[in-house]
Write a structure and sequence with these properties.
The complex is a heterodimer of chains A (187) and B (445). Chain A is mainly α. In chain A, 68% of the residues lie in helices and 3% in strands. The longest helix of chain B has 35 residues. The chains are: A mainly alpha (187), B mainly alpha (445).
Amino acid sequence: MIVTEIKKLIQLFDRISLALALVSGGVLVCLVALTFTDVAFRYVFSSPFIGTQDLIAMGMVIVFFFALPLTSRINGHIVVDLLPEFSNDKLNMLREAFVKFLTLGIFMLLGWEGVLRAEEADMMGEATNMIEIPYRPFFYVLAAGCSLNAIILALETILLIAGERIDSLKIDDGEIIDMNDSGTKVL
Amino acid sequence: MTPVLVGCAGLVLLLVLMLIRIPVAIAMALVGMTGLTILNSWPAAVATLLTEAWTVATYYELTVIPLFVLMGNMASISGMSKDLYAAANAWVGGVRGGLAHATVIGCTGFAALSGSSVASALTLGKVAMPEMARFGYDKKLSAGAVAAGGTLGILIPPSTGFVIYAILTEESIGRLFLAGIIPGLILATLFLVTIYIQTLIKPEIAPRTKSLPVAEKIATLRRASSIVFIIFITIGGIYGGVFTPVEAAAVGAMLSFVFAYFRKSLALKPLGSALLQSVSTTVMIFLVIIGANIFSPFLALTGIPESLANTLLTFEIGPIFLLAIILITFIFLGTFLDGFAMMVLVLPIVLPIIIQSKIPELLDIAGSESDLKIWFGVIMVIVIEMAMISPPVGMNVFVVKGISKGISMKEIYIGILPFWVAMMVCLIILITFPQLALFLPSTMI
């Protein structure tokens, strides 16, 4: 019963992760357009935009941290799979649970520190150099991406300890996301 | 416990964590933070974690990675790879082994659009493998040409490998990109020679195909001209000082979008897929850099790199022997470690040794540490390429296996072996003539 609920919850978070990753992709396209226009203005009109680098730096915070949860769910991180899997799947699940538990620890800590740092940045009035974009909302973006990633990892850890597993997502050429577990398409 | 002992324990822990399949970036962050806590304090470790995550995400120069990855993905979905292969095939397809030659030439061209070896092998492989199968090419030769040709993706600029190396060594991304051009072309030529020799010895592995009329050949070149235009603008722009690497990447990505639009290949699903793949690749690479940036200060605090350098230098090993030891270690590590993981793990230890050794004198570049770093960057990327086609963890081998039917891993590795030897020859050439890598960066405007 609980296992089914957790799986449903992960599928819900998968949809949020996908939506965030698409926002991340959208921001990346905006950064391409911004840089291209900046270069064009510099050469054609001899007047580059002020603050392009600031916008790119803050845009990259969204690109990176909003795409983080989906990257984890598609197993997009570099892993050294040198040793073969255990023949006993229970042992594999315990190993996977331990791996996800340690990973979630890092992201939980980073998410929490991001929240604290956002408040500190607000108090100190920290902002970018050229056009003074405040850091605070972007530390919240960092915190949101890391926290969502940590929550999904926590749910996956509980599932693995309970002896169940939810398959990772896939990005295909034709179909953007394929949910292997249920066979239902997210998009 | 002395710092060196803490460092050794940290390295063992890192190995254990990686063996139980914790993502490399997370393993480095965990060990780095534990070590910093022991050698400094918990608040310092936490501060390093947050600072590095923020710094890497907001680091302007690193924007070059998602932009070039996006450019490569857009080029892939817009069918430019097909045009590239068709043009190469039209011109060299008629000679013996022509389709395999065309694969390598196509990979060389696509490498100038893509910074990833896997993307190059996947994109060109999807086009070239069925074509070679249709004309009865030997599976081993086809697999070898695609897997090896694909590795050119990280040597010929733009290259994600060079960007990571540049960040880790504080070198110029633009200069490193330019340093990869001549070695990349030499390696591509060596691959072509490898195919030629194989088909000379065993002509039956690559049946001759029909040569096309000149008019058709020229037509294929016209279709591929958009690719040449993008390459000319991006790489030429960096060389001529017109663009910074980030600007060149943005211009290249924008041009790929425009060409994809005019080719009517901007359908929602492939576009969404290209965007998602671009951002997830970015996360993968950025996370490894964050992990490395947390691990490196810990390693520096332990004093292991200096101790190791001093110990090695007291043995008074000759520079050739020392370089051979380093390269053999890299090639060995590359057989089971991911290439990027190997670079971020080993570079902080090996680079100080190389700088303090007599290797710069051997190469006749003792005067400039920057030249040494750039030359070693090219060597490092070639070794990573070798890692990508070496058993048991060769990413490009998995790609070839994934896109071709009825070929065993053993057959792929046998097919790759001659190309692996070509890479060794390229390494020897670059050690003998380091100026081949340093010439273009030295003339950069």
